[in-house]
Amino acid sequence: MERLFVNVTVENLGPCKKLLRLEIEPEKVDAVFGEITASFQHEARLPGFRPGKAPKDMVAKRFEKEIEEEARKKLLSESFRKAIEEHKFTVVGRPDVEEIQFARGQAMQFAITTEIAPEFELPEYKGLPALRDNARVTPEDIERALRLLADQRTQYHTLARELKAGDVAVINYTGTCEGKPITETAPTARGLTEKKNFWVSVDATSFIPGFGGQLEGMKAGDKRTVTVDFPADFVVPQLAGKKGVYEVELVEAKEKVAPVIDEAFAKAYGAENLEKLHAGVRADLQNELNTKQSRAIRNQVAQTLLDKIQIALPESLVEQETRSIVYSIVHENTQRGTPKEEIDAQKDQIYGTANAAAHERVKAHFVFQRVADKEGVRVEQMDVLRRLQEMAAQYKVPVDKLYKDMQKSGRIEDIVNQILTEKVVDLLVQFARIEDAPPAANA
Questions:
Q1: Which CATH number do you get for residue 438?
Q2: By residue range, what is the domain housing residue 348?
Q3: DSSP line for 380-412
Q4: pLDDT (tens digit per residue) in 207-244
Q5: Has residue 52 got a pLDDT over 90?
Q6: pTM (global) more than 0.90
Q7: Same-domain pairing of 239 and 301
Q8: How far apart are CA 342 and CA 333, in angstroms?
Q9: 238 shares its domain with 105
């Protein structure tokens, strides 16, 4: 390797953080200045001289700042690259450069703070254990699925009679807690304070536990006071363990009328007859079960490997991943209609959850990359193209547009990492020692 340095020292600033101090000998600095100046001379167009024929001293004076900047960049990049090659560091993130001394005829001195990939021993990853749940689709599973299909075609008939268990009530209500509107106790719980034309099943578990059952016997136009005990683990912490009082008006009483599961029902779902519908439902449930079992095995094998390894991680990557997960959680909650105040109130919990997940993701990235390197697993261009085509079909956008958008936002690398992880986990499953779970574990 070409010698660029008089001295290179490395200081540990943490498990994954290094400070490199580099000093480049004056002869090398002057040589690079000469190379850059010659390059400028070749291209320079100065008045009174043909292109490339201007005197070197004149070019050096005319383009002094530009030559100095180019020389600085070349010396920094080449010397840093050779330094990390020499010490076998894998740099992650963006290095921070501090220039100490730089001028013609002098040694160039600078310091670079950089994060590097963690160093760890890869444990044995062949023969990792996993239990396979051999559950099968039962007749009861099929009946439940058919009832769910029937529920999708359930009709609601308005009733003149009193409500009874299993009916649906359409109500207006206002709620208080300790004699005050609920929003004074829980500002984000506007939906628990007042609603009009709210549909609630007449049973003990719907809406707030104990609420629906107290509507039995009401007829349209009736009014009633309903009292509830908010559970200790209620979704709105400020109300947990407290009592609520609701003034309820029944707007309409409705009866659920589910269709009969017969030949006509089967044909309504595109099946030739009821037997064919049963067969189709069984096949769908078995496919779902197979997918669930496969996912469970993959998760077991991957987690078992990760649990074998304890490593320090580059802080900047963990923080970057944490921010990304926080954004996703907030965006998801916003899309679901969660009030901003409620999200803000949970920001510490959201950050903690995101940070823990970020540690696992970053750790998995380094571990799976190490397995990929050892086993020669690669992501080909066609792998990325296929994934983009799948995503384009899902989002109903042209592939070219999706590719440009993802390239612009730097998310193509995320796709590559995702595919690499899938390939590595596929390999781990192939190597795994898979056993059927005992019957007790299936229950």
A1: 1.10.3120.10
A2: 269-442
A3: -HHHHHHHHHHHHHHHT--HHHHHHHHHHTT-H
A4: 999 999 999 999 999 999 999 999 999 989 899 999 99
A5: no
A6: no
A7: no
A8: 10
A9: no
